[in-house]
């Protein structure tokens, strides 16, 4: 087992939706501030489509490992990987070099579907709404995951909806 914690970060609507047309179906400024504070300095693993939704450039203060099966795709200032397994190894190596003990997995849907099987921790922003969308997050199985922290967050002036931020730990971890 690796000494590097693998944490999924996701915002998910009550009906499981996480995305629509290559973007998030909400604006959650309060959540983005917390997300930044929790991920800055740590390597992040992200799928190509999600990376492109960032404008095709890395989020500040984080080394990125971008996953694409297409060997011809190469983005400047990021590490490329052809699979989630390859990306995890690369991100863990970056974390060790930086003296970090955690990597952040930022999606999208296909990446989450694979990563939920081995991640140690999930930081989930439950968006208190049902929304239309084309990308969903897998169900969080209470036999596998236990909520260790929960914080109700009212909608701020730049937030579309109120949220509930929950940290889940894998039960067998």
UniProtKB/TrEMBL annotation:
The residues covered by the DHFR domain are: 5-170
Indicate the segments annotated as coiled coil, or none if absent. Answer: none
What's the EC number here?
Answer: 1.5.1.3
Keywords (alphabetical) are: NADP, One-carbon metabolism, Oxidoreductase
Query: Pathway of this protein?
Result: Cofactor biosynthesis; tetrahydrofolate biosynthesis; 5,6,7,8-tetrahydrofolate from 7,8-dihydrofolate: step 1/1
Question: Which Pfam family is one of this chain's hits?
Answer: DHFR_1
Q: What class of enzyme is it?
A: oxidoreductase
In terms of InterPro entries, this protein maps to: DHFR (IPR012259), DHFR-like_dom_sf (IPR024072), DHFR_CS (IPR017925), DHFR_dom (IPR001796)
Catalytic reaction annotation: (6S)-5,6,7,8-tetrahydrofolate + NADP(+) = 7,8-dihydrofolate + NADPH + H(+)
Q: What is the documented function of this protein? A: Key enzyme in folate metabolism. Catalyzes an essential reaction for de novo glycine and purine synthesis, and for DNA precursor synthesis.
Q: Family membership, please give it.
A: Belongs to the dihydrofolate reductase family.
What is this protein identified as? Dihydrofolate reductase
UniProt source species? Rhizobium mesosinicum
